[in-house]
């Protein structure tokens, strides 16, 4: 088993993350960040704001594409690159319009750290090394600092403790959160032929943990389906161990998208303006109101 040659150097976390997300675990990273969306929805404040914007219900695919592109620009090019900086600037512009607590930004940032790590532990064709896990954390910590998120924990353990405590305090059933989650689930199901969509919906539920399902008021998948989905993903991992290793990166910024048939401009990603009825506000000095910050809803992921 080999790891990325730069995995032991925190200064090179941008290279490590790009390698992990585009070469070693491209499919896994995307799926994990999609699950991170649902964790964001389960927070009453975040789910309520996302419902108020109406973006997920009215045009979920564009919302997904815009977020995916902004996050992918940062991962693929690095936060120090010009394109990465422009993507962060664009997310700052988009999120500065809303009143969002700093701890909500912190929580969404934590989902970018922990959902891919959890997925890797369960379904990765190999486990990330501890140095790679730390590089993943350092990368998103640096992104969060550039997005002016305050009080980012200095260690993985402290960040995990914050994330767990946040969920205990903020995961609660709310109609707005459920509606955003259902709209997103339907978007994922729409990627498949109609006869398969009921199974896709239930399979998504099979990947969500009980507290998350309860907060979103979603029915747990049958036990047999939970076991089948987990087994299928583990068998996929075993198969990948025997296949030739990917040599070239899989770049999500190169994927053809119906919303952008002629390509896209980073500055145009996301909503053109704040929706009516949602109060825009700049960041407060105490950090309790909104700031340009990483995805109050990023898929984990329009800006």
UniProtKB/TrEMBL annotation:
Record region (Disordered): 282-303
Signal peptide per UniProt: none
GO MF term (any one): oxidoreductase activity
UniProt domain ER-bound oxygenase mpaB/mpaB'/Rubber oxygenase catalytic: residue ranges: 52-239
The name this protein goes by in its record: DUF2236 domain-containing protein
Species this chain originates from: Candidatus Accumulibacter proximus
